[in-house]
Automatic annotation (TrEMBL):
GO terms for biological process: signal transduction. Residues 173-312 form the TIR domain. GO terms for cellular component: plasma membrane. It comes from Crassostrea virginica. It comes from the Eukaryota. Pfam families: TIR_2. One of its GO terms (molecular function) is signaling receptor activity. Keywords: Membrane, Signal, Transmembrane, Transmembrane helix. This is Toll-like receptor 6. The chain crosses the membrane at residues 125-146. Its main location: membrane. It is found in: Membrane. It is a single-pass membrane protein. InterPro entries: LRR_dom_sf, TIR_dom, Toll_tir_struct_dom_sf.
Length: 316
């Protein structure tokens, strides 16, 4: 093995190292060795070279055996600053190879090794795999998320835009609102909502109060809608289960838009019903609807009634 040595005084020493060990003439130099360049490497060990600062084994046919494979080749060399292992067939280096040079190593050359090619391929493969994984996840999850939250997102955004529209009606109305509800919610609508709003000076039309027997229910409903400034839906679990209520919603929405009264619909939401469960015809025009939720505690009832009253007043 050809070796060129330099001591701390930078005086070069050339010698041939045999398999049985170091020649006696060089031992005094090895203790103070700072620079070591190896032309042919065959498992050289550095137990005598703890002051080594620069090591070069470029193109030395460096064998991947022994201490190099174990990651202990540079163990103890805490003064090592420069290492050149280029132009060899190294394809991997253990993570412990430069463990003792964490604070000293300033220059490392691993060019033209299988290691560089493998590292490049690994990096490219990792990037490509990450992109593919992201695309697969996106393809799988995006439709699910869109399907699950589409209505909620669109309706909430649309609800923010409703303040842009301010429809003013020049005609006078007989009633401030027409109240529609499920039959099972009669007490809630007629005894609670109706009474409170009437006590606040509002005129409310009810099917059970204003519909005449023997006449078409649909025609009377359309007439009450025409005579009322707003239409109020009381949406409860019973309302969603009622088939007639779904038909009523469709009829009211169609009639309102046909007569250019998009802002005439108010929805009172009870039982913590999410927007996603609203009747489809209401969701389609949610951008023009005023929605008010029934409070969960009695302390907020006054604010709730104030909000409804304000929504039923003219020019709202």
């Amino acid at each position: 093995m050809g070796v060129r040595l330099q001591s701390s005084q930078r005086s070069p020493v050339n010698f041939v190292l045999y398999s049985k060990g170091y020649p006696d003439v060089t031992l005094s130099k090895i203790f103070t060795l700072e620079t070591l360049t190896i032309d042919v490497f065959d498992g050289f060990h550095f137990k005598f070279t703890l002051n080594l600062q620069r090591f070069s084994a470029s193109g030395s046919e460096l064998n991947f055996t022994g201490s190099l494979r174990d990651g202990t080749i540079f163990r103890g060399l805490k003064k090592l600053e420069e290492v050149d292992l280029s132009l060899n067939d190294i394809y991997v280096l253990p993570s412990t190879t430069f463990e003792d040079q964490k604070y000293s190593l300033k220059y490392l050359n691993l060019d033209s090794n299988e290691l560089s090619s493998l590292r490049c391929q690994t990096t490219e493969w990792l990037i490509a795999s990450s992109i593919m994984l992201f695309l697969v996840i996106a393809v799988v999850l995006v439709p699910v998320v869109v399907k699950r939250y589409r209505d909620n997102i669109i309706l909430r955004l649309s609800n923010r835009w409703r303040g842009v529209m301010r429809t003013r009606y020049s005609q006078s109305f007989q009633f401030d609102a027409f109240l529609t509800y499920a039959e099972e919610d009669y007490n809630l609508a007629c005894h609670t909502i109706y009474q409170v709003l009437c006590n606040r000076g509002l005129k409310i039309s009810l099917p059970d109060k204003d519909f005449l027997p023997g006449l078409s229910k649909v025609e009377q409903m359309l007439q009450c809608i025409d005579d009322s400034r707003k239409v109020v839906f009381v949406v409860t679990e019973k309302f969603l289960e009622n088939g007639w209520s779904s038909y009523t919603v469709q009829m009211v929405v169609t009639h309102a838009f046909h007569n250019k009264r998009e802002r005439s619909i108010i929805v009172i939401i009870k039982d913590d019903i999410p927007i996603e469960r609203m009747p489809r015809d209401l969701k389609f025009v949610w951008w023009s609807i005023i929605s008010i939720r029934w409070p969960n505690c009695e302390e907020n009832m006054d604010s709730f009634w104030d909000e409804i009253t304000g929504a039923l007043l003219p020019n709202t």
